[in-house]
Amino acid sequence: MKVSSNADRLVTQVLTGEVWPATADRHAYRVDPDGAPFLLPGMGAVTLGTHLGDPATGLSSDHLEPGLSVRHRDAAANYALQYLTCVGNTVTIVSGEAAGCTGTVIGQHAYVLVDAPDDVLERTTVGDRVRIRAEGQGLRLTDHPLVRVKNLSPAVLDRMPGGTRPDGRLEVHVAARVPAEAAGAGGGMFSEFANTDLMGAYAGLSDDLSLGLESLRIGDLVVLEDQDHGFGRGYRPGWVTVGTISTGQCALFGHGPGPSTLLTGPAEAFAIVDDPSANLSSYVLEEA
User: Fold this and answer.
1) Together in a domain, 154 and 276
2) Are 47 and 38 in contact (CB under 8 A)?
3) Which range marks the domain in which residue 188 is found?
């Protein structure tokens, strides 16, 4: 993106975590929006076969987390992992069969989510330790004081199309526009933690619940209308938030594929360009 920033003033830290297991309790079943019980995989562990650019909906899953689900076993360190890790950061596996292989942070959910090729994921297991090169929190766009940057590595920012237009607005390309009524679980939370689940993307469930979001892909950049994610997440008319879809299919009502927050501010500060190719897969570092 052709834009001035304070990227040369950012601090890089090495954070650690481990691949966390899928968890459950004795109350196995949940119910979908129509009241049907379900028991489906989704959160935690190593999830194969779903990567940046793949469909986010239509799979038999609940709260699908692509790739590696990573957290730290110390609660305070885990919060730091969530807050400081940014989309596009490089992750290196440091134990187990896949030691030395790398992946890329694609967002946050209950865990930090890491995409990697399936041949790497096949050699990774629960408990394997990872090292994250965390850089991005504190990033500012010096010519756009009304735009707040969240969870975005400067490397991804550099590769995104758009930038500062002659009229002073920030041009950002998105694959989909999300109406305000689609914002579900995640409202009220810090925008550096987890993501925003989008309602209305219940592929294969009730047609009357559709908001036209069934074609979302993992990694799609989307704009959430009338959403302010500057300090928390909430409804604010005349504001927009740009995020990247980091989680997939949900069967639980009020939940759905979710974007991790990248940019937020008054709508007049942005020039939003509809671009079906706007996906994180085009902007991550090739060596990750």
Assistant:
1) yes
2) no
3) 148-282
Backbone angles phi, psi at 160, to 5 degrees: -70, 140
Residue that has been written with the tokens 């993307």 in this structure: 201
Per-residue pLDDT of the chain (288 residues; tens, 9 = 90+): 999 999 999 999 999 999 999 999 999 999 988 899 999 999 999 999 999 999 999 899 999 999 999 999 999 999 999 999 999 999 999 999 999 999 999 999 999 999 999 999 999 999 999 999 999 999 999 999 999 999 999 999 999 999 999 999 999 999 999 999 999 999 999 999 999 999 987 666 556 667 889 899 999 999 999 999 999 999 999 999 999 999 999 988 889 999 999 999 999 999 999 999 999 999 996 543
Q: What is the DSSP letter of 118?
A: H
The answer on 180 and 62 residing in a single domain is no
If one counts every other C-beta atom within 10 angstroms of the C-beta of residue 49, the result is 10
Q: Is 199 helix (H, G, I), strand (E, B) or coil?
A: coil
CA distances 95 to 9, 67, 101, Å, are: 32, 17, 10
Output the six-digit token pair for 107: 């967002």
Does 66 share its domain with 22? yes
Q: Which residue has the tokens 């989909």?
A: 176
Whether the CB-CB separation of 173 and 156 falls below 8 Å is answered with no
Q: What is the pTM of this model?
A: 0.95
- How many independent structural domains does the chain possess? 2
